[in-house]
Amino acid sequence: MRVRLPLLACLFSAALAAPAWAQTRWDLPAAYPASNFHTENLTQFAADVDRATAGKLKITVHANASLFKAPEIKRAVQGGQAQIGEILLVNYQNEWQIFGADGLPFLADSYDESAKLYKAQKPVLEKKLAEQGMMLLYAVAWPPQGIYVKKPINSAADLKGVKWRAYSPATSRIAELVNAQPVTVQAAELSQAMATGVIESYMSSGSTGYDTKTYEHIKYFYDTQAWLPKNAVLVNKAAFDALDKPTQAALLKAGAEAEARGWALSKSKNTEYLELLKKNGMNVLPPSAQLKADLKKVGDTMLQEWLQKAGPEGQAIVDAYRKP
Ligand code: PCA
């Protein structure tokens, strides 16, 4: 009988620990590593929801594309395979141009402008996602995007023929416009793509450069501050509706807090990441006047192309964004 005692004790404590009310468990697929600031923010958000609901809603964050690959997360939330998930909006530009508004070079290239663009973009984003059975819980900008490249560059012409990693339709388009060779690789596979020589250049933030140890393969970062793409956290509407009112309120509150915290984190961490890159041997440099002018031209072309494809809906966003 001695054997049974621990078992009994175990069952008894499990019964005690088990809540008398129903517990809801949600999965949250995310595409970036656990140590990334977006993911840390998600983890904090999940802990806040847990605390605010006294454990009624448990959200498990699955970092680094371990549950779904980056381009699959939106569909997973839409279809209810995941109740909540974090996406990179610009990944979905081909589905609907408005998702790509924050990926256009130099349309909004500072945190303030990026916040303003978000405000202009948000109502239409919410409407579209609602049509798809989802809610926009919150969105946070990545730090400004610069160019990682193996050799020093002075102009866009120096990028000719370079193997260029793209993470979105727009970053592929930039490659085409500067005559580089685009290959789409999501962040979770980026380290490997550099190690195997599949890519020798890409545009992204100091954050992703640091996360992927880019300094082990690439030694130059041109801080072009070209745009700030956003991650957005989406919720399946049916899953949300199935929650009781206090739980819904707790989720929305934690989401709003995560949004404010995320923007502040992005900004402060950006400086930190660039310092860390330098410490690890990266040359962090301002772009030359020529490179700046070349990229500005690329941005102008892409904005024209985008406006044509996005139609009046896109024009309305740009107008609202530019209104003083
Ligand atoms: N990092 C992500 C998207 C934008 C960013 O800064 C990436 O490179 O995949």
Describe this structure in words.
This protein has about 325 residues and is of the alpha/beta class. It folds into 2 domains: about 10-95 and about 110-140 and about 230-270, 3-Layer(aba) Sandwich (D-Maltodextrin-Binding Protein, domain 2), CATH 3.40.190; about 145-225 and about 275-320, D-Maltodextrin-Binding Protein, domain 2, CATH 3.40.190.170. Helices cover about 45% and strands about 15% of the residues. It has helices at about 5-15, 35-50, 75-80, 110-130, 170-175, 190-195, 205-210, 235-240, 245-280, 290-320; strands at about 25-30, 55-60, 85-90, 135-140, 145-150, 165, 180-185, 200-205, 220, 230-235, 285. The chain has a 6-stranded mixed beta sheet with strand order 7-6-8-5-9-11, with helices on both faces. It is globular, with a radius of gyration of 22 Å. The protein starts with a helix and ends with a helix. The model is unreliable at about 1-15 (pLDDT under 50). It binds pyroglutamic acid (PCA). Pyroglutamic acid binds near residues 187, 204, 205 and 208.
What is the topological layout?
Elements: H1 4-17, E1 24-29, H2 37-52, E2 57-62, H3 73-79, E3 84-88, H4 111-131, E4 134-141, E5 146-149, E6 163-166, H5 169-177, E7 181-184, H6 190-195, E8 201-204, H7 206-211, E9 220-222, E10 230-236, H8 237-241, H9 245-279, E11 283-285, H10 289-322
Parallel strand pairs: 1-2, 6-7, 6-8, 9-11
Antiparallel strand pairs: 3-10, 4-10, 5-8, 5-9
Helix pairs in contact: 2-9, 4-10
The structure holds pyroglutamic acid (PCA).
